[in-house]
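ASSEMBLY PREDICTION REQUEST
Request ID: AP-0331
Submitted by: J.K., bench scientist
Number of chains: two
Total residues: 610
Priority: normal
Notes: Please return the full assembly, not individual chains.
Input sequences:
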Amino acid sequence: MTENELRVVIVDDEEPARAVLREYLSALPGVRIVAECANGFEAVKAAAELKPDVLLLDIQMPKLDGFEVLELIERDIEVVFVTAYDSFAIRAFEVHAADYLLKPFGPERLSQALQRARERACRKDRPHSDLIAAARARKKPVDRVLIREGARVHVIQANDIDYIQAQDDYACIRAKGREHLKQESMATLEDVLDPRQFVRIHRGYILNVDRLARIELYAKDSRLAILKDGAKLPISRSGYARLRPLLR
Amino acid sequence: MHPIIARRERLIPFMLAWMGVGVLLATHLQASPRLGWGESLILALPWTAVYGFFSLSAWHICRTFPLSGSGTTLRLLGAQVAAALFSSALWIFLGRAWSLLLARDQRLQEIPESYDSQVPLFFGIGVLLYLLAVAVHYLIIAFERSQEAEKRGLELKVLAREAELRNLKMQIDPHFLFNSLNSISALIGSDAARARGMCLRLSEFLRGSLALADRDRIPFSEELALVRSFLAIEQVRFGSRLQVDISADDGVEICLIPPLLLQPLIENAVKHGIGSLLDGGTIVIRASRSEDRFRVTVENPYEPEARRPRSAGVGLENVRRRLAALYGPEGRIEVTRESGRYSVALTLPAPQQEATDAGKRG
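STATUS: Completed
Returned structure:
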């Protein structure tokens, strides 16, 4: 963050909504608009390339909603949600948004939100918002997984995932014949995916049960999951215990 | 209020029946050698008429001892029999008094003697008649109660249906208002004239939806006008992302439909269809009629991979339930999703606008 200047990205799919923010921001000293985005993809791209201090983020947008954008951007970017829906406030609090503006709002309220964001950015002690918090706030399993490669975003439907393999700090997600790396722990993914469909069959593997063709005994206490596309994954003993109830 | 006295259509047959009893008694008296028809009737008719009125008092005892009450049957029987004996005794006494009164006339000298010879029989008849009146009262009470229960049941049903329909009628989505106000707030800074235009459109829409919601049926043209003003407001928000294509066959404007039936479908199309797409698209509205069926379809593009919105089903479900409540199997709703296009078709009976409706609106 440059000395005292706050670099802001506006994200809203409605032009009039962007216009309000533009007008209010232009009157505030020490604030610069570095980009205006009309959807979540543009927002993730702008966040990755421009490294702004604050995102003024609408929630209901096509393709990626505001919460999904927040999940995909660097953790040191402050997010202020700007929406007509008051029902998302608790969820916004759970993912540690800096503030929550309800449309329509006045310039004073925006200025206050930016002040709060500025203070938080200086403190740098913002707790990590993560997928788990987002999922808990959502109170149901995620139905799609978002992956950012640089400024690009891939949206993978949970149904399309064959299995997930642990790779150091990353999880390698196999879906539709492609592999995607996501910086997320296996435990987190296991936690947010639908437990009726996804099972941790091994320390290093999460399996989509729908892809399972059969199970072969490989050695004493050790089995192999044979997938419908022929892939073979190891099943640990505790993994088999978790898997078995789902096979009935 | 007494169930027989209160209603003439009951009191008249009741008293006529008593007159019948009077005639029977007169027939009996006349059969004895000393009395003629005239004397018999003049004694029996007023006498039974008085007893008829008197028997109406059975109602009070029936109310005190209702059949479904907690008291024992024995107490009930005891009370009614005692009342019958007492009433009959009173009746006999009145009869005696009446016969003596009549005997003051020289021509009716024979009456008291004839009367006295029949007293035991009359007493028995008096008791039976009173008990019969009791039975009639119990019947009427039971009948009234069941009628009232039925009426209350029907009233409840009507109330429940009205409440359901009221609930199902569209309530304006507050987020639509907030978003529109936000757009107005934006335009005030840059284009005051357009901001004013949007205020006017928004008022027009609000006034329209409030006015329509209170009516039973509206011509399709009025619903369409409301939809148009709604879409005009949304076009300010969404800009070129929202395109609209409306076409209605000749003659459909006068079809009568329940108010705000189309509106929730349009809201869904904007919110979950256009709103889910980066580049937006066109909402297509088609209305047609064939013979006695009115059909309207709303079609919009949507993003198949978008998250299932929680609220999307509510508006649609409300329309479905309203159609079912109003038309039963005659009202149909079909939803199709095909290659990125979402379509809802409503079919309902198509009565034409009636002259009375036009008058009512004035």
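REVIEWER COMMENTS: The helical segments of chain A are 15-26, 40-50, 66-72, 89-94, 107-123, 131-138, 186-192, 237-247.
SIGN-OFF: pending second reviewer
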